[in-house]
Amino acid sequence: MNYIREEEELARDTIELVEKDLKCYPDWIIRIEVPNLGIPQRGSVIGGIPPSPDRGSYIEDALEVSEEIQRKVEIIERVYLRLHGKTKDIIEMRYFLNYPREEILNYLADKETKKPISKRTYYRLRDKALESFARALGYID
Questions:
Q1: What is the Cα–Cα distance from 53 to 56, expressed in whole angstroms?
Q2: What is the tens place of the pLDDT at every residue in 86-135?
């Protein structure tokens, strides 16, 4: 008996969570490599993560946020290293280097025909990578 797995689409909110983490990644690397460079004021957003009323002091807040950032950076790096080809290029260019989608489509063009990849292909590759990140970050099972 053949089982055909239907492709499940990621929920929009899951995509947004993963994209937010991927866009923060380059800044998180700087934060880790150069600690205390720009310590935010109490009550502001720390490293893309809003303060929690459940936490105690500012030091505890900063420590929890730093640990969470470190955890996410390690996960993003491990998943990124497993990607390859156009999928890896899409993640790097879109989220780490902030290229617009149209430039990425042209960059990933067929080498012989110079025809850009289709938006459908772009989103299929992107969503496959985002699913890997979402699963590793614990946003989906």
A1: 8
A2: 999 999 999 999 999 999 999 999 878 889 999 999 999 999 999 999 99
Measured in residues, the chain has a length of: 141
Q: What is the DSSP string of 5-57?
A: PPPPPPPHHHHHHHHHHHHHHHHHHHHHHSTTSSPPPTTS-BTTB---TTS-S
Token pair 């996960």 is found at 75
> What pLDDT is attached to residue 86?
95
CB-facing half-sphere around the CA of 100: CA atoms within 13 A: 2
**pTM of this structure:** 0.77
Residue 121 φ/ψ region, left for φ over 0, alpha for ψ in the -120 to 50 degree band, beta for the rest: alpha
Give SS3 for 100: coil
